[in-house]
Specification:
147 residues, Elongation Factor Tu (Ef-tu), domain 3, 2 domains, 28% strand
């Protein structure tokens, strides 16, 4: 997704990049004016979507509200279209689990995938782990309990 926009200031004083359309994901990565960026799509002042640009990030690249920028963004982390077929089917069968998955940061997604993929030599264990992960996601659990 490529966005050209003028940075704005929210009612709370935060500087953000307004988005004209929903990117369909919560976490994005890419560049803004060729500077690396990683962040979360947020509702700004209750009336639109945007990417908040923190003061330290802006200081390092010299941007502020009113500056025109070009952002090149893509979804962060593993997306549902690139998952193993068995896990994708399990997620698709549970709207609650799928919604939770879509809202997870890549760190949590990758941890769940490592847990499932560690079962390559035991198909029965893989099925059980997929069921366990779907149940955790349905309950809104971001991270599998250790132990």
């Amino acid at each position: 997704m490529r966005v050209t926009a003028v940075l704005a200031r929210s009612g709370r004083g935060r500087v953000y990049l307004p988005l004209r359309r929903d990117p369909g994901v919560k976490h994005v990565t890419g560049t803004i004016n060729d500077m690396p960026y990683r962040g979360e799509v947020e509702t700004i002042d209750g009336n639109g979507l945007g990417l908040v640009l923190g003061p330290a990030w802006r200081r390092d690249c010299g941007l502020d509200a009113g500056d025109r920028v070009v952002a090149v963004l893509s979804p962060e982390g593993p997306q549902r279209g690139s998952l193993a077929a068995d896990f994708e089917v399990a997620l698709s069968s549970s709207p609650a689990a799928a919604a939770c998955w879509d809202g997870l940061a890549q760190f949590y997604r990758k941890a769940y995938l490592r847990y499932i993929d560690a079962t390559t030599r035991s198909p029965d264990l893989r099925v059980a782990r997929i069921a366990e992960v779907v149940a955790l996601l349905e309950a809104g659990v971001k991270e599998r309990p250790k132990g």
